[in-house]
Amino acid sequence: MPELPEVETIVRRLRDDLSGRQIESAEVLWNRTLVTPTPAHFKKNIRGQKIRTVKRRAKYILLPLSLDTLIIHLRMSGDLLLRTEGTPLHKHDRLILHLADGRYLAFSNMRKFGRVWLSPSPEDILGKLGPEPLSENFTAALFYRRLQQHKRQIKPLLLDQHFLAGMGNIYTDEALHLAGLHPLEKSDLIGAEQAETLWRSIRTVLQEGIRQNGTSIDWIYRGGDFQNSLRVYGRESEPCLTCGTPIQKIFVGQRGTHFCPHCQKRTG
């Protein structure tokens, strides 16, 4: 699944091309792509609206329009592709926006898990998300206080979008390794100094992921280079780049989790 750096990369790729463009019409090629409204209302309501910009919130792509906001979650295999009119549709295209400048935006979604909302009140969909990890308002002190409010294993907690928005399996494993924290460590046992180290590690791996245009993984997402910088994720049995100990893989909350048993000792 594309995580925060991959989604941010897509947003930056599309922002200049889409900002200020008018939507002439829409096609819904697979009805279940839309959560709300109905396909008929979607096509009627979006027609004629202008795209003001392209933004990201957590793993969601937001297109604020003249009246509404188009919200897209890529899930496992989604992507947004801008094409010239006349270019044949792809078999995995699920929703099309025809633009007044002679191009169209295709929501390609091979495994059909991605979803789209058109809403005048985006907070109805996004309001329960946690803080953005790269926001200026997300301080080390705030992070520590939030950790102390829970008694959960740190890996599943960081993946909880209500706790922290945008983190996924790859960057969570990388941040925990950089911070020297075991993925099963309990959040309330993490001290203030450790919390600040983890806070810095989260921001470091996300910023580096964005700088390298995300992580390319098979058919899910292509175009990034961060896979060449991975220290633990996907490196089971390979030597830790810090100490040489073989990287281990366990399952935490049904998610494959990579860590170094020497650098990330559990204290609880």
In short:
Helix content is 27%, strand content 22%.
What can you tell me about this protein's structure?
The protein is α+β, with helices and mostly antiparallel strands. It folds into two domains: 4-126, N-terminal domain of MutM-like DNA repair proteins; 140-259, Helicase, Ruva Protein, domain 3 (Orthogonal Bundle), CATH 1.10.8. Helices cover 27% and strands 22% of the residues. The chain is built from seven helices and eleven strands. The protein has helices spanning 4-18, 39-46, 123-126, 140-148, 154-159, 169-179, 192-211, and strands spanning 23-28, 34-36, 55-57, 60-64, 69-73, 78-84, 93-99, 103-109, 115-119, 248-252, 255-259. The chain has a five-stranded mixed β-sheet. The chain starts with a helix and ends in a 9-residue tail after the last strand.
Quaternary: single chain
Overall 3D shape: elongated
**What's the CATH superfamily of the largest domain, by name?**
MutM-like, N-terminal
| Architecture per CATH nomenclature, i.e. the level-2 architecture of the largest domain | Alpha-Beta Barrel
N-to-C terminal Cα separation, in Å? 31 Å
> Regions with pLDDT < 50 over 5+ consecutive residues?
none
The main sheet orders its strands as 2-9-5-4-3
Give the biggest beta sheet: 5 strands, mixed
Overall helicity: 25-40%
What percentage of amino acids are in beta strands? 15-25%
Q: Using the coordinates above, name the CATH class of the largest domain.
A: Alpha Beta
CATH fold-level assignment of the largest domain: N-terminal domain of MutM-like DNA repair proteins
Order of helices and strands: HEEHEEEEEEEHHHHHEE
DSSP summary, beta strand count = 11
Instruction: Kindly give the count of domains.
Output: 2
* Main structural class: alpha+beta
